[in-house]
Amino acid sequence: MPRRPVNVHSAYHAHVYFDADTVDQARALCEEAGRRFKVAVGRVHEKNVGPHPRWSCQLAFSAAEFERLVPWLEAHRNGLDILVHGLSGDALRDHTEYAYWLGQDWPLDLEALR
């Protein structure tokens, strides 16, 4: 099971990354997460948004869902890469110090967070 970042937060985001070949897979994963867990499912962005270097869909969830949702994402991501990070109010730290990856990590556009 993935370890929670050192600094525990009350809320988190998971950004599911995909491309044109895996958009349907990502959409299905996010929709299923929305049915199974108390998460807010964001739009499926078929373009790069914010600091994210790939197309993505955001899942927003509370710390209460962390221990159930994150292991489920790891088990069901089927090769998709997912950035998980806490929400501290400092977007730069959230996407660096308070972040970790399920799958491959991608370099973020940190200038978009400054």
From TrEMBL:
PANTHER family registered for this protein in UniProt: AFR070WP
Record InterPro entries: DOPA-like_sf (IPR023389), DOPA_dioxygen (IPR014980)
Membrane-crossing residue ranges in chain numbering: none
Highest rank taxon of the organism: Bacteria
Protein name (record): DOPA 4,5-dioxygenase family protein
Organism: Ramlibacter monticola
